[in-house]
Design goal:
globular; two-stranded antiparallel ribbon
């Protein structure tokens, strides 16, 4: 993905977790962008994951040249509104393939609308190898 550094800061980091810090030892990788003008707006990678049951309804959405399936979670916690964007190359006839990383957008409900617009500008630039 390409992003405008006047709008976003790359906050990605890599950390090693030992047996006393996390039940799963190894390296934890967090890849996300933080919006410059919004306090809680983040575009990151969610997953790999699965839905542990029947997948929820995924809505097709076109962002630039990229086709996604969109899943709006709404307000999942008191201070968190979120949505997932699953790039359609990761899908087979809209059946989610468990274990694939997916794009996530997260923000405080008061910043959600502005965050979604900014995030979709970035998500529209995705280049899949």
């Amino acid at each position: 993905m390409d992003y405008d550094p006047s709008k976003w800061v790359d906050k990605s980091n890599y950390a090693e977790w030992g047996e006393n810090q996390n039940p799963v030892e190894g390296i934890i990788i967090e890849n996300y962008l933080q919006a410059q003008q919004l306090n809680t707006c983040v575009v990151g990678v969610q997953g790999p994951t699965d839905f542990n049951a029947t997948p929820p309804v995924l809505v097709p959405i076109q962002l630039g040249e990229v086709r996604y399936s969109y899943l709006f979670w709404g307000q999942t916690q008191q201070s968190d509104t979120s949505a997932w964007y699953i790039e359609d190359q990761s899908l087979d006839d809209y059946d989610y393939v468990p274990g694939l990383a997916i794009g996530g957008v997260y923000a405080n409900p008061s910043e959600w609308d502005k965050c979604k617009v900014l995030a979709e500008e970035v998500l529209a630039t995705l280049h899949v190898p």
